[in-house]
Amino acid sequence: LTPTGSTSTKVELRGSVLLLECIAAGLPTPVIRWIKEGGELPANRTFLENFKKTLKIIDVSEADSGNYKCIARNTLGSAHHVISVTVKAAPYWITAPRNLVLSPGEDGTLICRANGNPKPNISWLANGVPI
Hints:
This is NRCAM protein. The protein is an all-beta fold. 0% of the residues lie in helices and 47% in strands. The protein has two domains: 5-90, Sandwich (Immunoglobulin-like), CATH 2.60.40; 91-130, no CATH class.
């Protein structure tokens, strides 16, 4: 079974394509099956290629992080490998700040919500000077 050993790790960026490969040898030729431990493979974004040797997930997000197991099985036995996947993300807007027009003495609220992995720090500046 390739990759060798029982576990490996993979880091992917949010929005990209995750490719996991598992190649097994044996006679009779083993059938490969993929599972996500503790969850489901994303139904509309998951594709099996190269006779199920390659698991492809498009447009990955942080929710796709986790342990993926490939299992190779034939009539004489089985082998498996677990790939621990971490999805990292550059900062992105959940709610971007919008322009705010106020009259003198009027109160207003600016909302800034961002996410990423690792979690981004948010700083507020007025005319380039930290508030």
